[in-house]
Protein backbone atom coordinates (compact mmCIF):
# COMPACT_ATOMS: atom_id res chain seq x y z
CA UNK A 1 0.00 0.00 0.00
CA UNK A 2 1.31 3.44 -0.92
CA UNK A 3 2.11 5.80 1.91
CA UNK A 4 0.20 9.08 1.89
CA UNK A 5 2.74 11.83 1.35
CA UNK A 6 2.67 14.33 4.26
CA UNK A 7 2.48 17.37 1.95
CA UNK A 8 -0.90 16.21 0.69
CA UNK A 9 -2.36 16.59 4.19
CA UNK A 10 -1.74 20.37 4.45
CA UNK A 11 -5.09 22.12 4.09
CA UNK A 12 -4.24 25.69 5.08
CA UNK A 13 -0.72 26.95 4.49
CA UNK A 14 -1.48 30.14 6.46
CA UNK A 15 -1.59 28.03 9.65
CA UNK A 16 2.10 27.26 9.14
CA UNK A 17 3.34 30.41 7.38
CA UNK A 18 1.38 33.34 8.81
CA UNK A 19 3.48 35.95 6.96
CA UNK A 20 2.31 37.35 3.64
CA UNK A 21 5.37 38.28 1.63
CA UNK A 22 5.08 41.71 0.04
CA UNK A 23 7.48 43.53 -2.27
CA UNK A 24 7.87 46.74 -0.24
CA UNK A 25 7.30 45.64 3.34
CA UNK A 26 7.70 41.90 3.23
CA UNK A 27 10.19 40.30 5.58
CA UNK A 28 11.72 38.03 2.91
CA UNK A 29 14.30 36.41 5.19
CA UNK A 30 11.68 35.42 7.78
CA UNK A 31 9.22 34.25 5.14
CA UNK A 32 11.85 32.20 3.32
CA UNK A 33 13.09 30.56 6.53
CA UNK A 34 9.55 29.62 7.62
CA UNK A 35 8.87 28.27 4.14
CA UNK A 36 12.03 26.14 4.10
CA UNK A 37 11.26 24.75 7.56
CA UNK A 38 7.74 23.88 6.41
CA UNK A 39 9.03 22.18 3.26
CA UNK A 40 11.61 20.22 5.25
CA UNK A 41 8.94 19.08 7.72
CA UNK A 42 6.65 17.96 4.89
CA UNK A 43 9.42 16.27 2.87
CA UNK A 44 9.33 18.56 -0.18
CA UNK A 45 12.39 20.78 0.35
CA UNK A 46 13.89 19.38 -2.85
CA UNK A 47 11.10 21.08 -4.81
CA UNK A 48 12.48 24.52 -3.98
CA UNK A 49 16.12 23.64 -3.30
CA UNK A 50 17.06 20.65 -5.48
CA UNK A 51 19.94 18.66 -4.10
CA UNK A 52 19.44 20.02 -0.59
CA UNK A 53 20.54 17.24 1.73
CA UNK A 54 21.69 17.31 5.34
CA UNK A 55 25.42 17.59 5.86
CA UNK A 56 27.12 14.30 6.66
CA UNK A 57 27.51 15.38 10.28
CA UNK A 58 23.74 15.99 10.53
CA UNK A 59 22.67 12.77 8.85
CA UNK A 60 22.14 9.73 11.04
CA UNK A 61 24.54 6.86 10.51
CA UNK A 62 22.97 4.27 8.24
CA UNK A 63 24.24 0.74 7.98
CA UNK A 64 23.60 -1.65 5.12
CA UNK A 65 21.07 -3.55 7.20
CA UNK A 66 19.12 -0.26 7.79
CA UNK A 67 18.85 0.54 4.08
CA UNK A 68 15.63 -0.53 2.38
CA UNK A 69 16.20 -3.16 -0.30
CA UNK A 70 14.08 -1.36 -2.88
CA UNK A 71 13.21 2.17 -1.79
CA UNK A 72 9.97 3.32 -3.40
CA UNK A 73 10.66 5.81 -6.17
CA UNK A 74 8.43 8.84 -6.44
CA UNK A 75 6.53 8.51 -9.67
CA UNK A 76 6.67 11.31 -12.19
CA UNK A 77 2.98 12.03 -11.64
CA UNK A 78 3.37 12.15 -7.86
CA UNK A 79 6.37 14.48 -8.23
CA UNK A 80 4.28 16.81 -10.43
CA UNK A 81 1.44 16.75 -7.90
CA UNK A 82 3.76 17.54 -5.00
CA UNK A 83 5.41 20.31 -7.01
CA UNK A 84 1.99 21.82 -7.73
CA UNK A 85 1.20 21.71 -4.00
CA UNK A 86 4.44 23.53 -3.14
CA UNK A 87 3.71 26.06 -5.88
CA UNK A 88 0.27 26.63 -4.35
CA UNK A 89 1.94 27.19 -0.97
CA UNK A 90 4.22 29.82 -2.50
CA UNK A 91 1.37 31.56 -4.32
CA UNK A 92 -0.80 31.40 -1.19
CA UNK A 93 1.74 33.17 1.00
CA UNK A 94 2.72 36.12 -1.21
CA UNK A 95 0.93 39.35 -2.04
CA UNK A 96 -1.18 39.75 -5.16
CA UNK A 97 1.42 42.16 -6.59
CA UNK A 98 4.20 39.60 -6.15
CA UNK A 99 1.99 36.86 -7.51
CA UNK A 100 1.29 38.91 -10.64
CA UNK A 101 5.03 39.56 -10.99
CA UNK A 102 6.19 35.94 -10.83
CA UNK A 103 3.29 33.82 -12.12
CA UNK A 104 3.87 32.23 -15.50
CA UNK A 105 2.45 29.16 -17.19
CA UNK A 106 4.17 25.80 -16.71
CA UNK A 107 6.64 26.78 -14.00
CA UNK A 108 7.87 24.62 -11.18
CA UNK A 109 8.00 25.49 -7.51
CA UNK A 110 11.76 25.91 -7.90
CA UNK A 111 11.19 28.45 -10.70
CA UNK A 112 8.82 30.48 -8.51
CA UNK A 113 11.19 30.22 -5.51
CA UNK A 114 14.11 31.45 -7.64
CA UNK A 115 12.04 34.31 -9.07
CA UNK A 116 11.14 35.50 -5.58
CA UNK A 117 14.71 35.13 -4.35
CA UNK A 118 15.96 37.22 -7.28
CA UNK A 119 13.47 40.01 -6.43
CA UNK A 120 14.82 40.31 -2.91
Kindly describe this structure.
- There is one protein chain.
- With 120 residues, this protein is mainly alpha-helical.
- It has a domain at 18-51 and 73-119.
- 41% of the residues lie in helices and 0% in strands.
- It is built from four helices and no strands.
- It has helices at residues 28-41, 76-92, 96-102, 109-119.
- Helix 2 (76-92) packs parallel to helix 4.
- The protein is globular.
Keywords:
120 residues, globular, mainly alpha
Order of H and E elements: HHHH
Indicate the structural class.
mainly alpha
Strand content: under 5%
Question: Rg to the nearest angstrom?
Answer: 16 Å
**Oligomeric status of the shown chains?**
single chain
Number of helices: 4
Ends: how far apart? Answer: 43 Å
Report the helical percentage.
40-55%
- Poorly predicted regions are 54-72
The gross shape turns out to be: globular
Described by strand count, sense and barrel closure, the largest sheet is: none
The number of E-state strands comes to: 0
Mean of all residue-level pLDDT scores: 84
Condensed summary:
Helices cover 41% and strands 0% of the residues.
List the helices and strands and how they pair.
Elements: H1 28-41, H2 76-92, H3 96-102, H4 109-119
Helix pairs in contact: 2-4
Amino acid sequence: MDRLHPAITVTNIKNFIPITLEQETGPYTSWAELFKIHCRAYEVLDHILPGEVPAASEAPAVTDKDKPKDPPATSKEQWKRLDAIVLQWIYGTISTDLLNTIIKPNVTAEDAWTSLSNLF
